[in-house]
Automatic annotation (TrEMBL):
Key words of the record: Glycosyltransferase, Membrane, Transferase, Transmembrane, Transmembrane helix
Stored InterPro entries: HPAT-like, HPAT/SRGT1-like
GO CC annotations on file: membrane
Its membrane topology: Single-pass membrane protein
Membrane-spanning intervals of the chain: 7-30
Protein name: Hydroxyproline O-arabinosyltransferase 3-like isoform X2
Position of the signal peptide: none
Superkingdom per UniProt: Eukaryota
Protein encoded by which gene: LOC111303920
Pfam families given in the database record: HPAT
Length: 359
């Protein structure tokens, strides 16, 4: 037998990779070309005043979050679901049913506690260690297989806590989203144009958002999701894009996918607060505890340096935080105090808190 050239093996491996990628892309094909030509006002600024103040569509929305079976994800989901049940039926809430979209590919030990739909993760290696890349793929699968009774969907995350009853902030085909200060499409136009060509319009058509929190009509999300999936894969596959966007790459992908479909979001700064930077809860609806909260005993923020008092979700990667966390020292902002009290209330009332999901 003739010796096979090493080049042949290289080409064979590359061919297998692209075949796998293209198969996935075919399954979740682009729907950009079929997007409707909707007439949208500018986000928030151009909206009628009544849209800026109260609720929007007054229709129930389904609460959906993506998660893994890791203890770190599980304990956050348990707290999140506890507070969903607490505020669901309070006047002012438009919450419908709840689904944890578990993209680990198999059931876990929270199936009886939290309403859950199991979906597949991306093929091994395709996320390249960026676990969040599974989120759009999870939503694509869930929308295809689940029976969803509500007209709207709230895309949420495990580290969200409902601090006030949340109305439906969307309005018709206008989704509602939260403006993130670090999502700046105009500052990355040379990157954005790889995915949002000039003929689609100015880069300012892309909202400064991620996919969560977003309240969106189900039919609109069904159109956006496959595009969001494919744009995410393309961005991760491009080294320059991956370097520029880093851990927020999937957020940019959702914003770009929405713009490709002509979808503009009502931007609601009151949708969410993020301690320790947001100091008061006020009338905001969700606490997002993604940032660590570090303070000295004088109540002074020591961000970037471990404080004498701290609450940081990343301190509990292998298992849940203990019950009855110590409260912050005097002088710490109300938002942080409220967060810790809400965590303590949830953990005090959730059965088997210390043992069920400890890794």
């Amino acid at each position: 037998m003739k010796r096979v050239s090493p080049l042949f093996f290289v080409l064979l491996i590359l061919g297998f990779f692209f075949a796998t990628y293209n198969l996935l892309t075919m399954i979740i094909h682009y729907t950009t070309s079929s997007s409707e030509n909707w007439d949208f006002s500018d986000s928030i600024i151009g909206m009628p005043e009544k849209l800026k103040e109260g609720g929007g569509s007054n229709s129930k929305y389904h609460v959906a979050l993506t998660a893994t079976d890791a203890p770190y994800s599980q304990w956050q989901c348990r707290i999140m679901y506890y507070w969903y049940k607490k505020v669901k039926d309070i006047p002012g809430s438009d919450m419908g049913e709840f689904t944890r979209i578990l993209h680990s590919g198999k059931p876990d030990n929270l199936m009886e506690e939290i309403p859950t739909v199991v979906v597949d993760p991306l093929p091994e290696g395709l996320d390249r260690g960026y676990i969040v890349l599974n989120r759009p793929w999870a939503f694509v699968q869930w929308l295809e297989k689940a029976t969803i009774g509500e007209e709207y969907i709230l895309m949420a995350e495990p580290d969200h806590v409902f601090v006030n009853p949340l109305p439906n902030l969307a309005h018709g085909k206008h989704p509602a989203g939260f403006p993130f200060f670090y999502i700046k499409p105009a500052e990355h136009e040379h990157i954005i144009r790889k995915y949002y060509p000039k003929e689609k319009g100015p880069v300012t058509n892309i909202d400064p958002i991620g996919n969560s929190p977003v309240i969106i009509r189900k039919s609109v999300l069904e159109k956006i999701s496959p595009t969001w999936m494919n744009v995410s894969l393309r961005m991760k596959d491009d080294p320059a894009t991956d370097k520029a966007f880093g851990w927020v790459l999937e957020m940019y992908a959702y914003a770009v996918a929405s713009a490709l479909h002509g979808v503009r979001h009502i931007l609601r700064k009151d949708f969410m607060l993020q301690p320790p930077w947001d100091l008061e809860v006020g009338k905001k609806f969700i606490i997002h505890y993604t940032y660590g909260c570090d303070y000295n005993l004088k109540g002074e923020l020591t961000y970037g340096k471990i404080g004498e008092w701290r609450f940081d979700k990343r301190s509990y990667l292998s298992g849940p935080p203990p019950r009855n966390l110590s409260l912050p020292p005097p002088g710490v902002p109300e938002s942080v105090v409220r967060l810790v009290k809400m965590v303590n209330e949830a953990t005090a009332n959730i059965p088997n808190w210390d043992t069920l999901n400890r890794g």
